[in-house]
Structures are given as structure tokens and as C-alpha cells.
Write a structure and sequence with these properties.
The chain has 101 residues and is of the alpha+beta class. The protein is built from two helices and six strands; from the N terminus they run αβββαβββ. The strands form two sheets. A four-stranded mixed beta sheet has the order 3-6-5-4, with helices on one face. The protein has a two-stranded antiparallel ribbon with strand order 1-2. The N and C termini lie far apart (45 Å). The mean pLDDT is 84.
């Protein structure tokens, strides 16, 4: 049985092969790892208001790389609840209180 994403994988591979500067739109070919900053050198924002959420959105829109982690509570429920969202750029960390927002 063929991979259900075979067409998408081939299309992506063709885009990468056709690209000379190692960029495909906003996608990048993996390169050497960039060391992360220490906690002391990385600003941190606790996002619990709409104003801070909008400020974070603006910063994320300018970032070329982000990392996201979700904390989820699913005890005594079928659907579960996302309780906390952690988002990082190369320059700043954000903790989003999804219950308040």
C-alpha cells in the first residue's frame, strides 16, 4: 500500500531540488544547529491579557522560527483542555495562559 502522502512528499522534494538558495518560500532546508540562549539571556513574557497576546502575535509574525509546546489536562473528560501554551522564538519566550484568555 503506498504512503497516503506520497504526492505531497514528491511535490515537496521537487521544490527542494529546484531551489538553489536552499529556501522554499518560508520553508528552509535543515542546516547546522544554532545554539540556544541561556534562560538569563532570554526575555520571558507571561501572556494573560489580550494586549499582551496582540504584542506576542506581532513578534511571532516577524520570527522565521518558532517552537510550541502545549500543556493539556484530560482527566475526567473526553475532550480535554489546553491549559498552557509555551511559545519560543530565537529571541524571546512566551507562556500563554489559555484558561484566562
Amino acid at each position: 500500500m503506498p504512503n497516503p502522502y506520497e504526492d505531497e512528499i514528491k511535490a515537496f522534494d521537487n521544490l527542494v531540488k529546484a531551489n538553489d538558495d536552499k529556501k522554499v518560500g518560508s520553508l528552509r532546508i535543515p542546516t547546522e544547529a544554532t545554539p540556544y540562549k541561556t534562560l538569563e539571556d532570554t526575555p520571558f513574557t507571561f501572556v494573560d491579557t489580550e494586549e499582551l497576546l496582540e504584542e506576542m502575535r506581532g513578534k511571532l509574525a516577524e520570527a522565521t522560527e518558532i517552537a510550541i509546546d502545549l500543556e493539556h489536562h484530560n482527566q475526567r473528560t473526553y475532550l480535554g483542555v489546553t491549559c498552557l501554551m509555551q511559545i519560543s522564538t530565537r529571541e524571546e519566550d512566551f507562556i500563554v495562559d489559555t484558561l484566562v484568555l
